[in-house]
């Protein structure tokens, strides 16, 4: 089963996102847990959540996204504290829709260096993760733009190594980001996935962000393209989602599209998916 979807607006609640998803033949979705620029989160409506949970048993795991403004490894302790408070609050609200994923960007170390960044990110996770939570928190693989941490599999591994509740963390692999980070999934997809397995472990791979890239491999730019309109290309992306290691993982499109565009991409990818 291919679980595929895109980002949807959370402003009208879960039942509304479910029907939007069904309209485009999606069976998972991503949403920002609060305004992407930060700010306060909308209250969860228990009856909306109940309705959604009762009708969405055919959906794959949801992949919630933390706001972009969250920077767990900022140099300014005020920004780090906001990041901890926002993530802790998001994880509390995630428990209304249990057993899903919460994805975040590890952050930018600014001028502190990757080692300090890694330490601060792990420290944040150790503050917010709880043994009783059902949500798995996913570190997103990053393109390595500026001082982003998580620019290669080794940095992600180093963060996980320092997390105490290791069964509460996983990885969301973004195809545009790893391509821009220098992992050639066009010419050497087997080698890239072997490296992922060797360094992080395939058991930690929980979700995919499926994007083409406007830039060549290793460019560290992070500009997403529609499927087939970038340097990765449709053929490589189709082969990628058909890999046996990815079976059953939620695939989220973050391509620059309107809903009709997402519907077309989902249709195209389903047509090229073999069970
Ligand atoms: Fe992201
Ligand atoms: Fe992404
Ligand atoms: Zn991106």
Could you characterize the architecture of this molecule?
It is globular and about 45 Å long. It has a single domain (3-271), classed as TIM Barrel (Alpha-Beta Barrel). 45% of the residues are buried. The longest helix has 18 residues, at 77-94. The protein is of the alpha/beta class. Helices cover 37% and strands 13% of the residues. The structure holds fe (iii) ion (FE) (2 copies) and zinc ion. Zinc ion binds next to α6.
Bound small-molecule species: fe (iii) ion, zinc ion
What is the CATH superfamily? Divalent-metal-dependent TIM barrel enzymes
Structural class by helix and strand composition: alpha/beta
Number of helices: 9
Determine the mean pLDDT: 97
The first-to-last residue Cα distance is 6 Å
Task: Tell me the radius of gyration.
Answer: 18 Å
């Amino acid at each position: 089963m291919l679980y595929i979807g895109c980002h949807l607006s959370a402003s009208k609640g879960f039942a509304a996102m479910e029907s939007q998803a069904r309209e485009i033949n999606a069976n998972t979705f991503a949403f920002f847990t609060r305004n992407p620029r930060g700010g306060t989160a909308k209250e969860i409506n228990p009856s909306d959540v109940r309705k959604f949970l009762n009708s969405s048993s055919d959906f794959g795991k949801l992949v919630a996204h933390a706001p972009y403004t969250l920077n767990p490894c900022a140099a300014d302790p005020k920004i780090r504290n906001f990041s901890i408070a926002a993530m802790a609050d998001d994880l509390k609200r995630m428990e209304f829709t249990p057993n899903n994923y919460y994805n975040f960007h590890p952050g930018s170390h600014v001028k502190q260096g990757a080692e300090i960044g890694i330490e601060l990110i792990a420290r944040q996770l150790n503050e917010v993760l709880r043994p009783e939570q059902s949500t798995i928190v996913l570190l997103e693989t990053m393109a390595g733009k500026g001082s982003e941490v998580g620019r290669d599999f080794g940095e992600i591994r180093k963060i996980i190594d320092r997390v105490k509740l290791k069964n509460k963390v996983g990885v969301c692999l973004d195809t545009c980001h790893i391509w821009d980070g220098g992992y050639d999934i066009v010419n050497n997809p087997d080698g890239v996935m072997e490296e992922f397995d060797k360094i992080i472990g395939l058991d930690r791979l929980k979700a995919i962000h499926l994007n083409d890239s406007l830039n060549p491999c290793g460019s560290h730019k992070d500009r997403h393209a529609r499927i087939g309109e970038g340097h990765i290309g449709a053929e490589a992306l189709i082969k990628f989602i058909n890999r046996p290691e990815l079976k059953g993982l939620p695939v989220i499109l973050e391509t620059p599209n309107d809903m009709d565009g997402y519907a077309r991409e989902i249709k195209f990818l389903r047509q090229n998916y073999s069970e």
